[in-house]
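Subject line: Sequence and fold of a protein, written as structure tokens
Enclosed: The protein record, placed directly beneath this head.
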Amino acid sequence: MGIATGSNAERAPDEQVMLRRLLPPGEPATAQQIADQLELSATEHSPPARPYVLLNMISTADGRASIEGRSRPLGDRADRELFHALRSAVDAVMAGAGTVRTERYGPIIREDGPRRLRRERGRSEQPLACIVSGRLALPADLPLLADPDARVAIITASPASLTGAAAQIEYVRAERHGSLDLPRALAELHERFAVRSLLCEGGPHLNSHLLAAALVQRHVGVALPAPLGVPVGLAVADEQQGGHR
């Protein structure tokens, strides 16, 4: 499902942003409608012993995934709406430690509306926040870790533990020959935390490992179809990656 929009700079705040799907082509839809369709796919096609993995990332046409280390400056209103709608539709949101540090992750779902919608659909108000970290180099004052209501799973091959964090932290220690065993980690998320659907938000290093291990069922890519500095809209490519591999 690819999506393109024109610039949203002149849209009224209460006007719905419609996304035009490119790959495969489809009728225009809101970010929530797209997220609902992906949620249905995850329910119908979930692998038997690990989560259905959605990979979401943004890049420019010249290949940049960030500006000065952060992805936030690349997006506009349409991208942000899709970003938050995808978060609202999954059991867990996963990111690498570098992304979590750089983007200063806080609560995954911030607005009352999406939290209420999750409750109505039988989910917890917040997805499980999953951080993939090799060395546990995570500051305790990170907003996500400083929140006593946050549920966080640290996915690591290290035997170490964080200190000073107020969040409710669990560890998924999946080590194999000194490295992180991602298939085993995802299986443990499924078994211990009932994670049936998982959204990965990068960074590129984690994305590449998930793709190389054939652990991604759906890739939702947001592409700025011109180099930085040119005022254009968005294109979002939603590509089916495969079945229950």
